[in-house]
Amino acid sequence: MNNREPIIAIDGPAGAGKSTLARELARRLGFLYINTGAMYRAVAWKALRDGIDLQDTDRLGALAAQSIIDLRGGVDDMRVLIDGRDITEEIVTPGVSRAASIVSTVSGVRRALVARQQEMGRAGGVVMEGRDIGTKVFPEAEVKIFLDASNAARSERRYLEDLSRGKTAPSLETTQAEIEERDRRDSSRSDSPLVQAADAVRIDSSVLTVEQVIERAMALIAARRSENAEYTE
Ligand code: DC
Fold first, then answer.
1. For residue 1, what pLDDT band results from cuts at 50, 70 and 90?
2. Which domains does the chain have, with CATH numbers?
3. Is the minimum distance from the CB of 101 to ligand 1 under 6 angstroms?
């Protein structure tokens, strides 16, 4: 048993509310917040910029290994940098979302990013969100939450998010089709597909308010912490 602060892994499909939950937990606990999806998005952004063929797995793996990806700032003002350039606003477009879903199927890309994520979270006191945090990045995480929601709820949320960003948002139907395509790719890839870890607690955010989701997660964290405290006494 070690004495470091816990690692909290939040996994689940796109639009389930992972970022909202992870940020709020990090804020309440005073933990570091790490959005691993932003790292896959950064690699995708650079691949698109450099005109790399998204089927060229060798080049994509090399690109991920050679790029310097930084997540800076706090919970509310996280900035994403690649090779020193701030690309925070540029990585949330539908084009980058689609490309990120493709590059994240590449084992070389995953190897490079998972190693960095493990380095960033090793000291504990971290809330890390993604698709494979509880299964692959930190299988030993003290708290694992699989946040899920119905397709309809996730599509509607993403659609409203796009609208509020002032983007010329695609229709709700297009958003739903894109989310379904990403779900299919994220869940069917051979390397670290999106699956619920056996010891993760599933929370369905389509039937709960944001506050209820946060309360359930906080209760789970408190329970795990007291179990661990008993165990170490
Ligand atoms: O969470 P997000 O939508 O920003 O993630 C972007 C893409 O990266 C998404 O298609 C899934 C992939 N991803 C992944 O494969 N593993 C992670 N740990 C995080 C994201």
1. very low
2. 7-225 (3.40.50.300)
3. yes
